[in-house]
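Working notes for the structural subgroup meeting. M.R. asked for a predicted model of this chain before we commit to crystallization trials. I am recording the input and output together here so anyone reviewing the notebook later can reproduce the run.

Input as submitted:
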Amino acid sequence: MLPSGSSNQWSQAAIAARQRFSSGRAVSESALAPSILRSWTRCAERGLAMHAEPKVEPMSQGELRARRERHEVLRRRCRPEVEGLYADASITDSIVILTDPSGVVLDTVGSTAFADKAAKVALRPGVDWSEATIGTNAIGTALVERRPIEVRGVEHYSEPHGILSCAASPIVDPFGEMVGLLDLSGPASVAHLHALALVQLSVDQIEHRMFDGAFSGLDVLRFHSDQHFLGTVREGVLVFEDHKLVAANRHALKLLGLGWDALGGRRYGDLFEGALGRDSTVRQVRRQLGENVFMRAERPAGEASVHALRPSPASGRRAAAEAPREPAPRFDSATHSALDRAVRLIDAQVPVLIQGETGTGKEVFARQMHARSARAQRPFAAVNCAALPEGLIESELFGYEEGAFTGARRAGFKGLLREADGGVLFLDEIGDMPLSLQTRLLRVLQEREVTPLGGGRAVPVDFALICASHRNLRQLVEAGAFRADLYFRIAQYTVLLPPLRTLPERADLVRSLWGELAGADQPAALSPRCLELLAGYDWPGNFRQFVGTLRVLQALAEPGGELNEDVLPPEIRTRVAAPGTPAPGLPEGVVTDPLPPGMAAGDLGTLTRAAMQAALNASDGNVSKAARQLGIHRSTLHRYLASEGKGGLKG
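Returned structure, recorded in token form:
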């Protein structure tokens, strides 16, 4: 990507290239990325109009539901990465998009405001964003080029799509087949410097997990020229059946200088010297081309055939449930005290509601509650109601019987409510649960039994309930978007998690997590200025944004080198808040009314009122402008003004 200082120069060059192309003149490859120029040429040859919006026919709800059911395994497998990117999307006013291998949008999650804008150019579920239909765009062009692609602003072939900046990467299975695509799209007016790196990292994680448990009985080799990369998503993975190469990941083929046509045509002896080995120890092996690599061989127990290696829905679900491990948020003493109280309450079957801004560690807190509770040895079933597309929530929670819908598993699926039986059910971002499902959930909580989709008898369940949300559920109740009876049932005790910006000694926190992320590797050093900027930033996405940014920096770092501030995202280089100062942009719906009894670990109402007052001062009393700056609805700000007895401000 281009540095922020050259973005205007790039934009002018891209506009000039577009004018030359539309007038039939030759465009220099130095003026435009070769992949974009190739795509424009393909679009022109297809007769697509450059200055008009493409005509698209969105699928009906029934067709979209059938398409989603067909790709249910893909959607479940990608869930951890979609959830991880969801936080970045919300912060940068962007959306995460998952498509099928043909480019049809299956799911979108992220910024509601930008999603509404994107929908105006048909960037929504059920629409075909293949290059042949839409013209040059990150989704369609990445599928044609079979590699990660970024398309910014005027690089889109269709002029109306110039409002978008998109980064996409195809998802390729161990056999070289494209099974889907992940995309991060946002407004072209914002510099998304690390979008492509974040998407590529997420796809690497998805593809790396595809090998887990899928090749029992075959020889799996993990290798890299640098031993420190073994066990990471950058390692090469090869699968052999009777010494014949039958599956691989992209990193392995790149390290060996091979293409997907090597599958079925190469043998172990064609690639490496010596015996294959199956002892699971790390050893040095010489490649036939002469270089040494570090390798670990494994032969999982069991029998398998290359014809039966496609991951089953069950294995896909297990893999999707294993989110990437990352450092946990650090809780202060007040939060640890609240944790002790919450554990006692959950053991007494009292539901607990966790409130806090996005990324403050609500799921980590819930998992610690489970680990310290009397149910620690029983299941912990978690579902993110915001990141999980609405079409999956009902089957995910309540399960389904055999034949309940097209694509349903032969044996059915018992659902998370029944999987939590005897243990703990954690409903994250419950404020985003559709009203129709709130009604069903309330009935389960009242009757303690679950009826799966497709009929069947009700099944008794016993679980402790933990819910979480960054939204103000009381305001949602007042607005009719959340059931009052469900709210009072789940919010019998509420814990508030403090935002990262309020924690002391953030420089020590940066150093600690930087070293923890590096693990056994020799971490690059952070320059004093880089450390100062990371410690001083207000982190509106809290620990999730914080750890995500450190992961990107780790990927960009050279072992043993030093990172300077020029690699930091522009918002961190230019926007630094004083320690302990509330960030001006709190998430929409954050608690503004007096905290309910039992609320622990800080006073979010005070922080929110301070942020609102600061925004009003900065906008010269203009309520609409201040609300836009805060990312909340104007009515929320008016309620605050009414409660404070302030009037006479501009609308």
